[in-house]
Amino acid sequence: MKSKLSILLNIFLLLLCCTCKHSGKKGNLTGPEISYKNPLNVTIGDPYVLKNSGSKYYMYGSDGGQKNSNMAYPTYSSTDLVNWVYEGLSLKRDTNTSWCVGAFWAPSAYKYNNKYYMFYSAQWRNNPQNELENFRIGVAVSDKPTGPFTDIQNCPIFDPGYPIIDADVLFDSDGRVYLFYSRCCYKHPVESEIAQWARSKGWFKEIEESWVYGVEINNSFTNTIGEPVVLLRPPLNLKDSISFWENRSVMTHEVNRRWTEGSYAMKYKDTYYLTYSANNVGGPNYSIGYATAKNPLGPYVKANNNPIVQKNIDKGGIVSGTGHSSITFSPDGKEMFCVYHGRTPATGNKRVLFIDRMKILSNGQLVVYGPNTESQPYPSGVSGTK
Length: 386
Hints:
Order of helices and strands: HEEEEEEEEEEEEHEEEHEEEEEEEEEE
Number of domains: 1
CATH topology: Tachylectin-2, Chain A
Strand content: 35-45%
CATH architecture: 5 Propeller
CATH superfamily: Glycosyl hydrolase domain, family 43
Oligomer: single chain
Helix content: under 10%
Largest sheet: 5 strands, antiparallel
């Protein structure tokens, strides 16, 4: 009898162990050994993560659900930054009457005065010259982070006179609000040494560029205060070793454009950090860099350890096309994470989600420990982990 009881007990313990392991993979954590691997099982471009009160996260991105629909922007929720639940599309739109008519890109969302605000890029209906790229930035509001978000006004926040994308907002400690965005490359040729070099090779007649701008906006998010300021742009000369990596898409004869886009601003102590992405978003050289300043509108100085995230396929890895990042923190606030999209041979042209740890070192340098496709611990503060 004791032998049978012993066998039954062992079987029960074995089944319990298997169940616990399976539950851990689904996010129901059972111990400090729980780990995850990049890329995560989310197809998304331009991921932006909002950490809500407590340990609830919401993520918004460019891909999905935008054709033949009155909604845009896939939205996900998570409690641990690893397991994401699809919440549906969050921006309500009517392309028959609204200011925006298509190509909805790169949303970012913020909680402000107990409301949720989404800044996003879309093609502007007001297009008398039939421009192929006529993007502007709009603002929508919702009572919930999952939406539906509706426009606070039926027009872009402002019109700088050229197409703009990739909105990011900084709420400064003095109560002022700043909007960062990227001018599109479209019809923006810039003369530089790389442009001269490309012509001498017979590759391209001109090189178009996108630049990152910053401008203060009012607290109702309906207009700007003052004029936009150029904060970041590609290097003018080929001897600029710090920014040379931003030339890769041109120097590999990939495209005749140099991008500076996908900015994300944050303040740490008395320094402003502005991350950005450079090179072709559709190619392997898309990478992330950053710059620092003592004022939100600069001047910004690019870091000498750029790029901080880039492809590793040339070093035996499987990741390429890494870029358009946002920054968030673990549930207990002790760890900082870089959230970005990338590609692998298995995902092909689909952009998928990566999250990797990042730090600001004692010398002020910002570093990202990625792209990391090995097992790594769950973010600190997740229930069931140390």
